[in-house]
Structure formats: C-alpha cells, structure tokens
Amino acid sequence: CQIVSTTGEVYDINSIVEEINVFENIYTAAISGDIVIKDTTNIVKNLPIIGEERLILKIQTPQTSPEPETTIDFTQSPLIIYKINSQYQSGETAQVLSLQFGSLEGFRNTTCRVSQSYSGQPNEIVEKILRDSNYLRSKKAFYYEPTANNTKMIFPNVRPFKCIKHLSNISNSRLNNSSPSYLFYETTKGYHFRTF
To answer: N or C: less crowded end of the chain, CB within 10 Å?
Structure first.
C-alpha cells in the first residue's frame, strides 16, 4: 500500500494502515472506498495530501501460489485519493485519518466529454469509449456479454459513463434470448458489461 504524491514522491503506508473498505455496486460505473491510517509523521502536511494522489494497492490472502481471482491488484492502474473524510488526534503524537478514494476512470469521467459518432455492436462501442486515450484511458480487464444488435450513435458533448449507460439501455444480448437488461459496472477485477 503506497501513496504517490502529485510531485511523484512515493510514501509506503503498509505499517500504518488500520482499515481498508472497497465498495462495489452493480448500479455504479466506478468503485470507491476509504482507507483509515494511524499517522505519526503528519503526512497530510509533509507529503502533502491535496486530493490528487494515487493509491497503489495490492491485497492478497497468504498462499503459496496466489491467483488473479484471489488478489485485489491496483498496481498497474492505481486508485485516486480525492478527499480527507476525517482527521482526529489519537494520543499525543498520532492522528487517525480516513482518506476517500475511487478509480481513475471515475475521476476522468468528470473531466472529459464524448463528442463523436459510433457505429457497430454496443459492446464494441463501450470498449472503444473505455480504452480511448481522450476519454477514460482504462487499461483494466473488460468482461462483456456479446450484444445482438447493431447501432449508430452520435454523442454530442456527453460524459463517457452517460454514453455507456445509454448503450446499456438499448443493448440486447446475443447469448440470453435477447435480454435487454444490460449493466455496466466496475469490480476489483475490472469492468463488466453484461445482463442480469
């Protein structure tokens, strides 16, 4: 568990982590969470934490040969710390901090807009928006259920997640009797575009 400051300085916080919560929701396009640390070196001022730091996180159970299914790995695509939830004294020399974090794609969604036309299968369009260097720039795994319908879309200055939400609403499944109940969500393993 490391925090990378906006200047590129890396601070290892393994020894001071008290608690980590990661929130996944099939109705939410990006994961979020919080990390509680017991700080004795005042990293809020010394690092400093201003709300744009990256959080490199890797969690796995102790085992001889860890597998990707049993590992939460945000080393290749770090999370972003965007808020200090709470900060209070714990004794004379320590303070307890709660830092809020989320995925970088969620942050990029708030800073860019899609103004482009697309045609083809909705699952291919979703992947293009997800991978595009002008939009979400995601390198995470993308698991999808193939769609049965072709579509032509023009998105006029719309946020990427809103574009994907619209594609979810008009998609029909090729595998499950043309089921129209598509969801787009993120888990610790990557992005998913699939039906109920």
So the answer is: C
**Do 13 and 57 contact (CB within 8 A), yes or no?**
no
Q: What tens digit of pLDDT does each residue of 46-80 get? A: 888 888 899 999 998 887 777 777 889 999 999 99
3-state DSSP assignment of residue 61: coil
* In contact, 80 and 104? CB cutoff 8 Å: yes
For residue 96, pLDDT over 80 is answered with yes
**Bridge partners for 183 per DSSP:** 194
User: 149 in helix, strand or coil?
Assistant: coil
**Separation between Cα atoms, residue 138 and residue 140, nearest integer Å:** 6
